[in-house]
Write a structure and sequence with these properties.
Shape: elongated
Strand order of the largest sheet: 4-3-2-1-5-6
Mean pLDDT: 96
Helix content: 25-40%
Oligomer: single chain
Strand content: 15-25%
Number of helices: 9
Number of domains: 2
Bound molecules: zinc ion
Length: 358
């Protein structure tokens, strides 16, 4: 664990008045220990960190994990409780947002008398907010793969080609360019399907005059990219062009506002306010953005409800959209990093209106 991360966990223990913390969430495990496998546990106390995993992963853990102690268990719960006993921990925190209720019940049932398991949610959220240089490099690399793959498959976006074939080619190109995996199921929503904010690529064929919204990303070294491009396949109607311009302007204004210390809800409000002023407030139903890193959607949310201030190192998305049933939709999304004096765009693709030949 880097000093900085160890410091954050120690502060968490202090703030929550805990003797130890049990991490089971995969993204947190990777962040804190370096472990990239699918089954493990990290028990952190003031005395240090113990990483636990099963026989499938012991060798991998010895290569990847930076904890002081690595233990192998047959049954995860037993392994955890053995360590809890050995370390004499009595007040232990757990990840309330991701630990299954049944697991918490079993931990409580099998723990020695006097042992308290304390759910933690709010206090955990800032843990991975601020990205360090290695993380930013990984996010930029993932975005670079996605951009290169997109430019490669761009000629494919033409009338008659199926949405799902575009998704498939894009995913294939990202993998070929070094992505470990796509960040999430690729969204390709053309024509009227553009009104579906999460329109997973379907069997619909692209038609001339469609706007095509493509939301996609690549994962590299565990870090995800996430961006949305909306392109026009041949000339589109004046109404579609109008909503494109409104979304782009809302996007640009919100991007410009990103700087350290600004409330995230204000950034949401800038895009939302502009879109509402133009008469489309009812057609922008989701929040403006989200954090992105080891998970494609992570804290902090960039929404009207947010009480978080933009902080140096945070990487968030800015993704306003307008979705009009039976007509179509537009979303434009970039990833941006909050810097000391403003922001830096992480994604690379141009977001201006692009008219593809038919
Ligand atoms: Zn997206
Ligand atoms: Zn997103």
């Amino acid at each position: 664990m880097t000093q900085d991360r160890a410091h954050r966990v120690n502060k968490l223990l202090e703030d929550a008045n805990l003797e130890g913390f049990l991490f089971l969430d995969r993204a947190n495990l990777r962040y804190l220990s370096g472990f990239s496998g699918s089954a493990g546990a990290l028990l952190v106390s003031r005395k240090g960190a113990t990483f636990l995993t099963d026989a499938r992963y012991t060798t991998q853990a010895r290569q990847e994990v930076s904890a002081q102690t690595i233990c192998e268990y047959r049954v995860q719960l037993d392994g955890i409780l053995e360590q809890v006993n050995e370390l004499g921990l009595r007040r232990i925190g757990f990840e309330a947002d991701s630990l299954p209720y049944a697991m918490v019940e079993r931990l409580r049932e099998k723990s020695p008398a006097g042992c308290q398991w304390q759910p933690e949610s709010e206090r955990l959220r800032p843990l991975r907010w601020a990205k360090d240089q290695n993380e930013l490099t990984a996010l930029e690399h993932a975005s670079g793969i996605a951009a290169e793959a997109f430019e490669e498959i761009l000629p494919l976006i033409r009338p008659g080609v199926l949405e799902r074939d575009i998704a498939l080619e894009l995913e294939f190109a990202m993998r070929r360019l070094g992505a470990e995996e796509k960040s999430f199921d690729t969204i390709v929503a053309s024509g009227r399907r553009g009104a579906l904010p999460h329109g997973i690529a379907s069997d619909k064929a692209i038609a001339g005059g469609d706007l095509v919204t493509i939301d996609f990303g690549a994962r590299w070294k565990g870090y995800h990219s996430d961006e949305t491009v909306t392109v026009a396949v041949g000339p589109v109607s004046a109404k579609l062009r109008q909503i494109f311009d409104i979304v782009l302007e809302g996007h640009d204004r919100a991007m410009d506002a990103v700087r350290s210390g600004v409330p995230l809800r204000d950034i949401d409000g800038i895009a939302r306010g502009y879109i509402a002023e133009q008469g489309y407030g009812d057609y922008f139903g989701h929040s403006l953005g989200h954090g992105v890193g080891l998970e494609v959607h992570e804290h902090p949310a960039v929404s009207a409800q947010s009480e978080v201030l933009a902080e140096e190192g945070m990487v968030i998305t800015i993704e306003p959209g307008i979705y009009i049933p039976d007509l179509g939709g537009v979303r434009i999304e970039d990833m941006v990093c909050v810097t000391a004096d403003g922001h830096r765009r992480i994604t690379r693709l141009p977001k201006e209106f692009r008219l593809l030949p038919v």
